[in-house]
Amino acid sequence: GQVFRLEDYRPSDYRITHTDLLFRLDPHATLVTAKLTVERRDGVAANAPLVLDGDGLVLESLGLNGAPLAGEGYTATPDRLEIRAVPAEKFFELEIVTKVSPVTNKALMGLYQSKGNYCTQCEAEGFRRITYYLDRPDNLSTFQVRIEARKAEAPVLLSNGNPVEHGDLADGWHYAVWHDPFPKPSYLFALVGGDLGSIHDTFTTASGRKVALGIYVEHGKEPLATYAMDALKRSMRWDEERFSREYDLDVFNIVAVSDFNMGAMENKGLNIFNDKYVLADPETATDVDYAGIEAVIAHEYFHNWTGNRITCRDWFQLCLKEGLTVYRDHEFSADQRSRPVKRIAEVRNLRSLQFPEDQGPLAHPVRPRRYKEINNFYTSTVYEKGSEVVRMIHTILGPEKFRAGMDLYFERHDGQAVTIEDFLACFAEVSGRDLTQFALWYHQAGTPRVTVTTSHDPATGDFEVNISQTVPPTPSEAVKKPMHIPLAFGLLGPNGDEMEMGSVEGAEVNDGVIHLTAASQTIRFRGVGSRPVLSLNRGFSAPIVLNQDLTKEDRLFLARHDSDLFNRWEALNSLFVEALIAAAAREKEGKPHDFDAALVEAAIEIAGNDGLEPAYRALALSLPSEADVAREIGNDVDPDAVRAARDALRREIGGKGRDAFRRIYDQHADSGPFSPDAASAGKRSLRNVLLDYLAAAEAAPELAALQFETANNMTDRAAALTVLAHQFPEHEATRKALAAFDARYRDNGLVMDKWFVVQATIPGAATLERVKSLTAHPAFSLMNPNRVRSLVGAFSSGNQTGFHRADGAGYQFLADIILSLDRHNPQVAARLATAFRSWRSMEEVRQLEARKALERINAEASLSRDVKDIVERTLA
Ligand code: HT7
Ligand code: ZN
């Protein structure tokens, strides 16, 4: 297949400066008339052909400057339109009529139907499934869009920009015209036509302009959109306050659809959302759902400046908009909720998704240099590591210089399609710092490993810290250079207080940050009276794997005393990981467990520590997942041993903490009406973590069953169901609860997703048969990406013992699903295939089985480019 390379980037010979579109909506035969104002760039030969992108298009007619174009003047295939008869003038107008079939479009890219409503998805290369175009992000065009539809079928007609006019037509048809004055790339185009309910509100910008806000949902679901509307208004205010970014159009609309490949899409003035990230009420949504809605609404809204007003020159620059916008949505959520809790959740997520990607066959730089299929690069590395890189710029420059760099970026590049170099140049300029070495974070793949040893000389008061770094080899990058790693730190004295330090040598150290820039550095702190405990990489200031010579006692000390709440959590978490690795090894050898009493005691102590917010305590008590432990073990992993070790530690802590946990569980019971705010959610999360321990300690489902039956909200109901299903899968109480849930929510796909996830993630070999039979459940459909992710995705990426069954049956099941899904939705099929990415870290028998399944997929003759790309890289 074709490989796209960063170094091959060339500006196009022509630009489309204005795009006039007419849609006549029909399920099977929508006619699209595109009138394109085309400009030849200066210096381009008058006879240079104009080549436009297409993807499976049917051309109906073609005109140039108002006259039909003769056949010899062009060549049209479904995937390409080449116009050779280009006029001599600098500007000309091209008219293209294409015919598309929304109802049969199951790839959910381009124009398609979801529950009978027309909608579009154009990022990254979906616009070329609608009409022939310069479908590349550096072509910025204004758009005028006229939509015509049968009024009964689609009373609501929306597109980007501001509404211009609407009215009735003959034969029960009607129309609406939209104009978007902000030049944009085609990937930000959107259209919606359907029979939808809506809620409306207004937002007055800082400069006093009134913006009409609308959220469109399935009829009857309007009340479920009020939280999303509130989150939208909070996002708009936050971006004004934090970054002085105002909204720029008269309207901002959001449409929720049920069939959607990803989370949401930031189309200019018309965001289209997976309904999972819009709809919520206490009866159907968990606290995690509410937080997800808030984050995704903010993320898409923030793209208006970081992505839309300033966009990417080419798709290699994807992190320019995604990494930066994730950073912005993380900061927003941290401000709206609890900063340390948010940071811990981010790091857990980074470690469980991005670290394995960076350490496996699919590793790639935050800014990749080559791709075969761009859809496969909407990755955790581009998004989450991309965000961490922006966070490090903030750490290195400090808040004022960071803000000045952002201001310069917005001012200098508004209305442009730019690169990571352009972005970094703004920060270098305002700070006077050379960011050349720092830029390696964008260019070098792999998670840096940092090793730290310390020594203290009481006679001289010198505290020496030796820090070395290596970046492991990744596909097609064997040799790496040392990175600029900003390590936030503090020295803790014997009483737990922050120690004063005298002079420092051996590295740039300022504002509580050590700047590691060489492969190895020795830093000497002078005037340190007694041996300190070094709290390093505070707040997870750099996305690295840190190996530090801390004793168990040091870690327990940090877990109790560190003023940095992230590192307090980190210290306890690292002790859990260590204990689980040791326990898994003993398990394999058939030895009994011998968990450290001090560790168990520390966990119990945290549960009852009223000085810490409940959400934080809940995170501290959440044991590392089986996948976390497997990743730390690294190779020759036996998932059954890991699971047994984790179960044993849970039993041990639950058993020892039983009375205290029960008391705290009762104390934190919800009183009064449900509220999704962070404090209330935190209490629920603490209770639900404790419920898991209590059930393990009691080896009985009664408390969970009682909570399931009496819960007045989905958070508590789903948590209880999870405890029942995961700890007592065969128990009558579980069977009853699962059946009750099914009976109550069978018609609500989004809620049934939770039911699928709970069952798909039941540990153990038997779950595969359960998952297989659930594919026949009436609520399941291979056509709906949310259902596929909830059942098959959760099983393959969230069930270590089920998916990695030693007999390979889990792998073969996933291969069957991928092959079947690939026929209609390659994008989602390719994403499922990434579950194989850590196959080489398994023990030998499982490796052989995984290879067999991957090779079977790869042998399929009609495999999509999407799946082929993932499978080939995974096998390489
Ligand atoms: N920019 C969007 C990414 C995206 C996408 C969304 C829906 C369907 C297919 C898609 N391909 C790429 C979402 C975002 O990051 O905000
Ligand atoms: Zn995004």
Automatic annotation (TrEMBL):
Its cofactor is Zn(2+). Residues 227-438 form the Peptidase M1 membrane alanine aminopeptidase domain. It catalyses: Release of an N-terminal amino acid, Xaa-|-Yaa- from a peptide, amide or arylamide. Xaa is preferably Ala, but may be most amino acids including Pro (slow action). When a terminal hydrophobic residue is followed by a prolyl residue, the two may be released as an intact Xaa-Pro dipeptide. The keyword Hydrolase applies. Residues 95-188 form the Aminopeptidase N-like N-terminal domain. Its EC number is 3.4.11.2. GO terms for molecular function: alanyl aminopeptidase activity. InterPro entries: Aminopeptidase_N-like_N, Aminopeptidase_N-like_N_sf, PepN_Ig-like_sf, Peptidase_M1, Peptidase_M1_dom, Peptidase_M1_pepN, Peptidase_M1_pepN_C, Peptidase_M1_pepN_C_sf. Keywords: Aminopeptidase, Hydrolase, Metal-binding, Metalloprotease, Protease, Zinc. Pfam families: DUF3458, DUF3458_C, Peptidase_M1, Peptidase_M1_N. Residues 553-876 form the Peptidase M1 alanyl aminopeptidase C-terminal domain. Residues 446-548 form the Peptidase M1 alanyl aminopeptidase Ig-like fold domain. It is an enzyme of class 3 (hydrolase). Belongs to the peptidase M1 family. PANTHER family: PUROMYCIN-SENSITIVE AMINOPEPTIDASE. This is Aminopeptidase N. The lineage of its organism: Bacteria, Pseudomonadati, Pseudomonadota, Alphaproteobacteria, Hyphomicrobiales.
